[in-house]
Amino acid sequence: MNRFALIISIFSLTYAQYDIYNLNNYNYDQDSLRTINLTHVAKSFIVPGWGQLNNKDPLWKPILFFGIESIAIGSNLHFTKKSNNYKSDFENYADLHWDLQRWFENTKIIFPDNWSDIIVGTHKLGLQINGRYFNTNTLESLSRQHSWSDILVVRDRDFYENIGKYDQFVGGWSDDFDNPFDDKGNWFSEEKGDVESVVLTKRKNYYRNLRHKSNINSSYARYAVSSLMLNHIASGFDALINNYNINSKIGKFSIQFLPYRTLNEGGVLFNISW
């Protein structure tokens, strides 16, 4: 009995020195999972190709993303400049060749039966008289109360769009007047679809072409910005995918019953490896 008590005492003293909270006393394997370096991903979202360089990707990748970035920026600057140049051209041309008084007088000639309705129309131009603002709805009465030199048309974005887009304002162009309803001369009509015709003048037509060129180049500039944004996104996701370096091979799943062991706690062990 005394010998048994002695053995129990020795085992008790041995296990009393064992720290169950110290991980070094347990057998375990660390996973092979590698963490994602978000710094590299962020770099690629900010400057396409930067993260690929840090990831040590093949050299063609950062060159490709840098190249697309450079072309997109250069294209945006180029087409924006061209659009603005054409914009200045058509605005200067309209300022020189479209006149408010001429529009009022010519509209009476072009549309003698309903000229007043045409002046009021569905679209308006802004007017300014001695710091007060009006629109072309009241132009007929304003022309009786003020001299034409006092009535200023507001040359804003709507003005430059309306005078080139709508027949309502065709009378303001400075072409020598002739029959506007045939297909020849300074004033002429063009068929638009099956049921509508557009009244043009040579100068209005030239003006419309300048506006069209400005709008086309503005569209190209916007396409370049869209390409720029897509390049940032593509570069960021490419860096994310290539940085996400995980061993995707699925290992075994096992369940083991482990009795109490000398240095580890026993029980049921679930083991999943990947």
Written overview of the protein:
The structure is a single chain. 20% of the residues are buried. The protein folds into 2 domains: 1-33 and 246-274, no CATH class; 74-218, no CATH class. The longest helix has 42 residues, at 202-243. The strands form 3 sheets. The chain has a 3-stranded antiparallel β-sheet, with no helix packed on it. A two-stranded antiparallel sheet has the order 4-5. It has helices at 2-16, 38-46, 50-54, 60-97, 100-110, 115-120, 139-145, 157-165, 202-243; strands at residues 126-129, 132-135, 152-153, 187-192, 196-201, 253-258, 267-272. By secondary structure, the chain is α+β, with helices and mostly antiparallel strands. Mean pLDDT is 81; it is low at 246-257. A hairpin with a 3-residue loop joins β4 (187-192) and β5 (196-201). The protein is elongated and about 130 Å long. It has 9 helices and 7 strands.
Keywords summarizing the entry:
single chain, 274 residues, 12% strand
The stretches of 5 or more residues where confidence is low (pLDDT under 50) are 246-257
What count of structural domains? 2
Strand element count: 7
Radius of gyration: 40 Å
How can the largest sheet be summarized? Answer: 3 strands, antiparallel
**What is the mean predicted local confidence, pLDDT?**
81
Broad structural category:
alpha+beta
Instruction: Report the portion of residues in β strands.
Output: 5-15%
Order of helices and strands: HHHHHHEEHEHEEHEE
Portion in helices: 40-55%
Q: Can you list the strand order of the major beta sheet?
A: 2-1-3
**Straight-line distance between termini:** 52 Å
What is the number of helical segments per DSSP (H or I, 4+ residues)? Answer: 9
**Outline:** elongated
